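Researcher: Good morning. I'm working through a list of sequences from a screen, and I'd like to move beyond sequence-only analysis. For each chain I'm collecting a predicted structure so we can compare shapes side by side. This is the next one on the list. No need for commentary yet; just the structure.
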Amino acid sequence: MSGCIRFTVHHGTVPSAAPATPSPRPDAPSTIATLRPGQDVVGVFACTRKDRLMARSGTPYLALELRDATGSIQARAFRDADVLAGRFERGDLVRVAGRVDRFRDALQLEVRQIAKAEGDAANPAAFLPVAYRDLDELEGFLESLAGEVRDPELAGLLAALLNDRELRAQWRRAPCSRAGHHAYLGGLLEHTVAVGTMALEMCQLHPRLDQNLLLTAALVHDLGKTREFTYGAEIGLTDEGRLLGHVELGLRLLDDRGRDRIDDARRIALAHCVLTHHGPDSAPGRRFGSAEAIALYRINALDAAVKGAIEHGIAPASAINP
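Model: Good morning. Structure tokens for this chain:
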């Protein structure tokens, strides 16, 4: 019939204006920023708090804080608290299964299962701060600076260090500190390139400086930091980092790699620069033995102080720790 509209009814179906929003899958990875009350959670998080407390009923429970790159959340494990507690430690990256509730106007995660994360899931770069600058580019700068060292013995030492794949990976990964300047993954590489660049410029301004010595010292002065830190929920200290410190660790590493490559006089001059790069008070004799040692100390302190001011604000001179 002309001018009529024909409707067709499909029995058993209900038309909908828009598709329904699917509910979160219990096995889908979760980030803290996207958590909602009533949501089931499965994910890997950093455990930054772990306390065993007692409920009013006299039964133990775990009070936890979990964190990822998007935020943090308080968590509680009420069932099998002591069993679960044995599966991880504070500072671990942990795999968690639980459900989000609202408690006192804040989100809280009730944990059903929790254990230390293993394998590819335990990647600190997903939970710790990372350098803004491109690390591949910084490694290229590091290699270029090393190429400016013409002394065959010192150039051979740098080549041996740069060709060590394990050391190179640690050099790229390490921070400079845990709470001071360059306190993020890749911070050591960024600081090393900055100090090396300024050392090269200093030698252009003062040609009587030994460029080979100063530039080598600039590139290796913090090398001990490759052995100083641990990585998990937070940046921690290795036993040798806590007991010996990065200067001693760096001197041992250089002595091990340079003993058969560098003559004694050159090796001692390099060690002195590394030993005094925090100032003469940090070394036996309490005095600088070369202009290159003074230059390295000043350049290192300059980069640390400027970077610290940019990241944390202006601090009293006594609070700056290069």
